[in-house]
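Worked problem 6 (solution included).
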Amino acid sequence: MNRLFLLDGMALIYRAHFALIQTPIRNSKGVNTSALYGFLNTLLAILEKEAPTHIGVAFDTSAPTPRHTLFPAYKAQRDEMPEELAAAIPHVKNLCRAFHIPVLELDGYEADDIIGTLVTRAEAEGGIESYMVTPDKDFAQLLSPHTWIWKPGRKGSDHEVIGLPQLPEIWGVAEAAQIIDLLGLMGDAVDNIPGIPGIGPKTAVKLISEFGSVENILANTAKLKGKQKESIEANADKATLSKNLATIIRDVPIEVTWDDLILSQRDDEALKNLFNEFEFRTFTKRLFGDAGAAAPAPAKGGKEAAAEPTLFETFRTIRDTEHTYHLAETPEQQAELFTLLGQQPEFCFDVETTSLNRFEARLLGIAFSWKAHEAWYLPYSDPLFTDLKTVLSSPAKKIGHNLKYDLSILTRMGLAVGGEIFDTMLADTLVSPERRHSMDYLSETLLGYTPVKLADLAAPASPAPEPATLDLFSHAEKSKASKELDVAAIPVEILAEYAAEDADVTWQLYQKIAPLLSESGQEKVLTGIEAPLLPVLVRMEMEGIEVNPASLSVIGDELQQQIDQLAKSIHAHADRSFNIASPKQLGEILFDQLNLIEKAKKTKTGQYKTDEATLASLEGKHPIISDILSWREATKLKSTYLDALPNHIMPSTGRIHTSFHQLLAATGRLASSDPNLQNIPVRSEAGRKIRKAFVPRASGGFTLLSCDYSQIELRVMAALANDATMIEAFRNHIDIHTVTAAKVFVVDQENVTSDMRRTAKMVNFGIIYGISAFGLSQRLGIARGEASAIIEAYFREYPAIKEFMDRTINEARENGYVETLGGRRRYFPDLNSGNQSLRGNAERAAINSPIQGTAADMIKLAMIRVDALLRESSARTKMLLQVHDELVFDLAEEEKEELVPKILDAMRTALPLPHDVPVEVEYGTGANWLVAH
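Solution. The predicted structure is:
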């Protein structure tokens, strides 16, 4: 029996493109290859597993079809095809031709119609089993005794083969042709087929089961009742139209024979060229072995060679994967484990604890692995402390995933981790910043393996532990319903399997990611910046910072009085009370009652826009605007900080312990959460007051020290651009904003007014973020023409800055990425977009990234150096916080004279800037953060 596989090309590439829309696959030139990659994966699964004798790929064309003639709104609601997806279609067709697989398309007909015609022909002639490869449900109308749907799997699940027996189970009808009747009744939103209003899938199935077809329903409306009867009678034409639109045409005049569709020898040379162009190393190795692999061009960064995932039709699990996991329970087994660990130049470890709370979690055990599919689990007890301390502090490289948590637990216990650190989560973030980095996701993506989840193991808190002989998976099934995880109640044999698997998987991820890190050019960023920073952040987080709850309360009361006063003023301006927090009511006040502007912009829901940018653009038109902006800031500060900060004080320490995130921001800047201390405003009076509540540690002899880089981003920009005027100003300690104002406004520096300096400051910092004339006019409240003239004057006086910006964009467009002085890369595929808005955003970000990213590299390197300085001198002084360009310390008073100069020097020299641009650090000390800053 011949086996015919007909692929719905458009549906498959749409599916592949949008399945990876959050984490697109791109080659080193920035080309989105998601659609091509996903399509190829499905095609190879068919060629390798299904043994087709005949094969073809059908595509739609842009020409209208009979359905458009019948109903011009057919598919009219669909969004325009994304340009990256449209660009992929020719490459998919070239791929098919390289496999010598016919591309089937005909103007006036859809891929569905071509496939429908060929499977109908095959069924009539006999001797052929037909498989329609598509995720589209509409193809069910074509099912027959020898015709099936081959539906690709999703997110690692296996594909489904759907035939006539599955019709009642999946669609609720007995005959394939009744699929058309279902669509006629309920319509299809995807294709804009209207159907009958109010008729959903359940009602449609019920009606078809009773009457058999749309025609019979329309002929028997007298048997129907109520609104259903009225709706069907009133929309009889829509039902007939919808059924016609949903019917796949089966007599397309396409000139193709069975001989044309016979699977023939592929063109290996053409495939190798395509794989090389799109940097599909995995597929090259899969089809041609190592000999066929070509290395990506290093000049382009090799990013997608690094980021290329492995997509799998099915994921392996612990059930079907050979493995050897050891449980080290006895002294003899533990001694063997410690001996083996002492012999390893590198090993992976993963802690198991009772909680995710770093200050309350109890260590249950540690899993180790240094060989794929083999791992050890060591249940922890106090007598093991000394041996563990020796192993963990050894010079061996330590590997783990999201190691910050593990290091926090071990640090709290006094178990220091020595040697080089390799965190697979951090490494993958540098390799493929746009995708998710959880261990489970990476395991499925890179290894084709789904690990057991802890939630499937943890038993309810109250029952006694299951017997030790309990099967791992029966236990998992019994405890799925448990919401509260009681890890300590999991039998040690089961926990050992789970923990050992985590260590084993992480070790295998390390083996996959480490070469990709090197190929992507990001190895030095990990080894020189991010990995050494990891234990520094752990020490800072565990140290925490003192906060005075009484001060928070006082500041909160003061702010509430300000909020109440602002509300009274706002209501007075509006001449009535209203809910200031309601965008709808606020919009009506501003634009219906006060008529601040004509034709005010509205949201998609029809409400007036009252967002921050809209209100900022209205400043000066009415005093109510400044009051509203002040009210919003005050209420946000009160709820976000003054009301919330007391809840973040850890009872066991009496301090606040924020969590730092190394690579959350695309530029490499540190972020913080629980609580977020990065966003406390420093320009407003209310924001500054919040800093008063942050105080030195309660034990005597401490003060707060704040060390802040001065205008660091402007200095970085001057260095990268090699702008002589800016560099001279920084070297001579002349105020850069005054210098800029004097040049732009053509006055002597002594004649620069405060308004001129304010404008110059706005331009200086705005240029870093690619500010436009419109943006500058909005910020300064001036005409766009005036703002444009200021920017033109700026570039006239600072031509090197303009040259730097243009050069950066051109190089980023050529290479696909920009790079910081620390070597950190950021990719910008939208630089080549045909969409002007996307392209403009990418250009502005490309200019800003090497500047802001270099500043991020600098302070991270400074933190590493300062931490080493404090530890080497056994100082009582501790580094507590990093906020933007500032470091905050608990400074021991007796160490001030000796330590502060060393800290400042470490910060200034952390990352020397080109052209001898000086780096300045301002500092202050005081009884609270506000005074110190």
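Discussion: The first helix runs from residue 9 to 19.
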